[in-house]
Design goal:
Two copies of one chain form a homodimer.
Chain A: H1 14-30, H2 37-44, H3 48-54, H4 58-68, H5 83-99, H6 101-113, H7 120-133, H8 135-144, H9 154-171, H10 179-191
Helix pairs in contact in A: 1-2, 1-4, 1-6, 2-3, 5-6, 5-8, 5-9, 5-10
Chain lengths: ~210, ~210
């Protein structure tokens, strides 16, 4: 597993980085429809002409900010050599990403703003980057190890986990998502709430009353 | 089950209704941070002074629009007398709501804008309205019928379904979510992907080929 932040492309001078960070923070706060380069400049602590000169439109600024760090907007994919371990880490990683300004900006753009034709290109690139990171690899490896049946609907499984985590993280903003939730979610998806947590598929032990 | 749209409160003249509809459409399109009363007026086909005079701030317009139709922003709760039937209908109902301008506006506000202190009141009322509709009643009734164990984590189960559906509906904008997806999701949550779809704990009926 990677322990360091993934490298970012096309980042440069501290001023540029500060403007991109401020862009993500404002995108996370108000979305693309409310983005204002003057407020971005104020948040970055630079003169507004610095922003207007380099990015003549709001769209060009947003494109440049995302292009500087596609990888920062999507979760890394764990490889713990068990399906359960990988999925639980993916839950934690998704939570971390969606709490960051980059990740929240990307989620907002992806879920709500991608209808705007001028944003379709950015949304497609984020989607492709996420696909390239390969969350489905988790499932391919699990199929290879015999932990999942070969016909498993990989998109369905990943999207169910992703949707449940996004919803929870966005609604519960105080404090990170806890490990108990990650276990409960992966138990539910793998075994179902009717079966309960982590029972082995072998004969049940009798319990004394 | 209800077949008619739930009644809405505080709706009145056609002009008011048109302005509220336009408000939801713009909220769904650009979010609260990008909302502009002039564009709302243009979309509603009224003079901008009509909007400015009645709602002196963007916030007052948004509050009035939601107050006119809290119930239109949250899903109705089915009662089909089986857990599976209720959850599958809830999936379809959530999809319908999130595709409507009211529902998308509410989702956007709830997931992304509720941090803004001035919107906390609206978000809390939408949340309370959703709670009052009682999605957890589905689970209480199922517990009463012996379909779910008494200790079931109701918030977890409802939020997992809600999150998975919201994510899917917002990402796949063309065409309604299909019944096969609703079945697959409820199968996964109740029985787990490892168990597969809808296996009865009893002996299967043989089908003729």
């Amino acid at each position: 597993m990677q322990t360091k932040q993934a490298p970012t492309a096309a980042r440069g001078a501290p001023v540029t980085d500060a403007i991109f960070e401020a862009t993500f923070e404002e995108l996370a706060r108000v979305g693309y429809g409310g983005l204002n380069r003057e407020l971005v400049a104020a948040r970055a602590g630079v003169n507004k002409s610095t922003v207007y000169r380099r990015w003549p439109t709001t769209l060009s600024l947003v494109e440049a900010a995302f292009a500087s760090t596609w990888q920062g907007s999507v979760p890394r994919v764990p490889n713990t050599s068990t399906l359960r371990g990988d999925l639980e880490m993916l839950v934690v990683e998704l939570d971390r990403i969606v709490r960051s300004p980059h990740g929240r900006a990307a989620a907002r753009l992806f879920l709500f703003d991608a209808r705007a034709p001028e944003l379709a290109g950015i949304a497609a690139t984020i989607g492709a980057e996420e696909e390239a990171r390969g969350p489905k690899l988790i499932l391919d490896r699990a199929i290879g190890r015999g932990e999942l049946p070969p016909g498993t609907d990989r998109s369905f499984l990943i999207d169910t986990v992703r949707g449940a985590v996004l919803f929870r993280t966005l609604l519960h903003r105080n404090g990170r998502l806890d490990a108990a939730y990650a276990r409960e979610l992966i138990d539910a998806v793998l075994h179902g709430v009717l079966r309960g947590p982590d029972k082995k598929p072998t004969v049940k032990k009798k319990t004394r009353r």
